[in-house]
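Protein modeling request. Please complete all fields; requests missing the sequence field cannot be processed.
Requester role: graduate student
Desired output: 3D structure, token encoding
Chains: 1
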Amino acid sequence: MNNAYSKKQLFVLLVTTLSSFLTPFMGSAINVALPAIAKELSMNALSLSWVASSFILAAAITLIPMGRLADIHGRRIIFLYGAVIFTLASLFCIWTPSQSFLIAARAIQGIGGAMIFSTGTAMLISAYPQNERGKFLGINITAVYVGLTIGPFIGGWLTQYLGWRYIFLFTTLLGALIIFITALYLEKEIQEKKRESFDFAGSVLYAIALFAIMYGFSLLPGWKAALLIGVGVFCLACFAFQQLKHPFPLLNLRLFLDNKVFAFSNLAALINYSATFVVTFLLSLYLQNIKLLTPFEAGSILVAAPVVQALISPFAGWLSDRFEPQIIASIGMAITVTGLVQLIFLNGDTTINYVLFCLVLLGIGFAFFSTPNINATMSAVEKRYYGVASATLATMRLMGQMISMGITMLVFAVILGSRPIAVGTQHLFLESSQLIFFILSIICGGGIFASLARGKMHKGE
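Delivered output (461 residues):
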């Protein structure tokens, strides 16, 4: 590391990297522990799904408001409070006596996570000069993939030998470390927006819109789902109209209307997450139900993508500092499409090496897309909008995850119905998977054009 970097810069890098590791680690570790949690707390499939969904939903609803509050009151203080809330919620999860308590604690974790998501990237971007942002964003993204990679292993080990509650003990201890470093070593910022007011009405409209849309997706197919999504879209339209009229909007839509790079970078992120989030979910089912591998064997194969992502992300960030992020990210999206297209042909005779090849392709594609896309998005806005820009990107990720799951559940409902994945329904599962990967390939193909449409950043260089 360059000796010219100040202690403040290094501490910012440390806490944002730890926080970037924390949530993906927790998510991937908890996925391994879900059967044990269900057994101990007597949870059915629907209530168990809320262990994951409550976190995503709470985080998505509060991300943009927290980003705005961070721009008004300071990113450090919102980040610190977020770490405290997340850590306390993790502590509650350790002691949870019932399924309802666990789901509520996970929702509180989501709010704390949103406060961390909406400020972490902005803090990192603010601490380093523009020509070095890609490199440090690459380190940050690597931490995400390391969390995704080791989460299943550590989570599985803790669950098997100590119990699932020890996963939350691990996150509590890591959260406490983040709080300690942030409180002691990160200085307060000089605020640029203290006289601006917070838009509570917009926050409520935004929360209703996002809740209705995301919860509606979870109920697909059905008239209740359509009604909820319709209400959500209507509230979203009202929110957009209200924001354009508000003197101090929660979300500055002019960033989208007047800033082509910012708008298309966010659209590309939404498309990319929509097209890739369920890949691990589907391949885990495929490897265990069709190829009859054990969970540990399946997990050992599925780590291929995040390992490749972790190795390549710093290089991709370095490239985005020297060449157009538009081009690097679009190449990454194209490689991702190639990997998804290969997965359309999965069948009972497909070899494990073929699956590994597809995962490596997807890992390369996502690494080349993600870091340059974040670099392009954050570099496209003024410093005072970093909080909202960071929160917007994180919201695109969460909305993409819900869209991805919505597509998957809809296809399963139509082809598999209420039948389980068993020997007699393997052909229906394969048919569903092939259709889902086909849809995802089409969506991701459109993402290439969204990525290319953002235009150049390094003009005149």
